[in-house]
């Protein structure tokens, strides 16, 4: 069939074959397998590791993702038929290309950088959330402490006002007692005048107030 393999590298190879008249309305099958043993070359489609279908308009195909320093067997048939010995070719791949090795290293470094960046972002987000949560908690505690202090101050002021009122009442009570002792009848009359509706029964004044106000039995006479 005249199959040739060209442009062999450590991971690729170009397979070229002549066009077949029987495959005009069909497709080409490019099959290849690594570490081929010539003693077990039954050329069965099931024995091949990879198989690619190529349109009949093409007469070449680039096999990729090959292992470096490896022996391969490649066969080209029409419409997935089992290949024969004249439809196959053996070739060896070269060492790994420096360019592909550098690309592999770059891809590895890029993957490590992306992974580390994602981890750093996650850690930064966790730390930021913790700081915000702690800040909100401190502000809440401060506001609660201020509210408690204001309530305590209010209670203290109320207690002081009650104490002052009690003291004033205590200071005023002796004077009122003296007034009651000196003029009990006049205080009673003043109470009756302030609340006339309560005066329905005759009031019996003391001896001193009897001279000034006569007993009439009615509050109107006092007025």
From TrEMBL:
Gene3D superfamilies for this protein: Immunoglobulins (2.60.40.10)
Positions of the UniProt region annotated as Disordered: 199-223
Positions of transmembrane segments: 110-136
Superkingdom, taxonomy of origin: Eukaryota
Residue ranges constituting the Fibronectin type-III domain according to the UniProt record: 1-96
Keywords, alphabetical: Membrane, Transmembrane, Transmembrane helix
InterPro entries associated with the record: FN3_dom (IPR003961), FN3_sf (IPR036116), Ig-like_fold (IPR013783)
Protein name: FNDC9 protein
Species, as recorded: Rostratula benghalensis (greater painted-snipe)
Gene: Fndc9_0
């Amino acid at each position: 069939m005249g199959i040739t393999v060209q442009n062999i590298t450590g991971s690729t190879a170009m397979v070229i074959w002549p066009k077949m008249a029987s495959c005009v309305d069909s497709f080409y099958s490019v099959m290849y397998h690594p570490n081929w043993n010539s003693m077990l070359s039954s050329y069965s489609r099931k024995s091949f590791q990879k198989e690619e279908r190529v349109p009949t308009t093409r007469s070449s195909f680039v096999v990729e993702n090959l292992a470096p320093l490896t022996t391969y067997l490649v066969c080209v048939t029409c419409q997935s038929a089992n290949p024969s010995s004249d439809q196959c070719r053996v070739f060896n791949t070269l060492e790994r290309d420096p360019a592909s090795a550098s690309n592999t290293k770059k891809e590895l470094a890029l993957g490590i950088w992306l992974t580390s960046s994602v981890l750093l972002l996650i850690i930064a987000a966790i730390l930021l959330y913790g700081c915000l949560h702690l800040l909100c908690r401190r502000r809440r505690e401060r506001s609660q402490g201020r509210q408690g202090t204001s309530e305590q101050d209010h209670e203290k002021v109320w207690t002081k006002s009650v104490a002052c009122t009690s003291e004033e009442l205590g200071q005023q009570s002796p004077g009122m007692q003296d007034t009651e002792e000196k003029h009990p009848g006049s205080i009673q009359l003043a109470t009756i005048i302030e609340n006339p509706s309560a005066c329905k029964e005759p009031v019996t004044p003391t001896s001193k107030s009897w001279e000034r106000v006569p007993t009439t039995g009615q509050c109107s006479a006092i007025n």
